[in-house]
Amino acid sequence: MRKRVVVGLSGGVDSSVAAYLLKEQGYEVIGMFMKNWHDDSVTISDECPWLEDSNDAMIVAQHLGIPFQAIDLSAEYKKRIVDYMFAEYERGRTPNPDVLCNREIKFDVFLKHAIKLGADFVATGHYCRKGEITNDGLVVYQLLAGRDVNKDQSYFLCQLTQEQLKSALFPVGELTKPEVRTIARKIGLVNAEKKDSQGLCFVGKVHLPDFLQQQLKPKKGKVIEVAADALVFQANGNGNDLHQQIEPYHYSLQSGSEAGEHPGAHFYTIGQRKGLNIGGYPKPMFVIGTDTKENIVYTGQGEDHPGLYRKGLKIKSADIHWVRNDLKMKVGETRNYLTRIRYRQKLEPSTIHQEEDGMYIVFDNLQRGITPGQFAAWYNHEELIGSGVISA
Question: Is 82 exposed, middle or buried (0-12, 13-18, 19+ CB in 10 A)?
Answer without folding.
Answer: buried
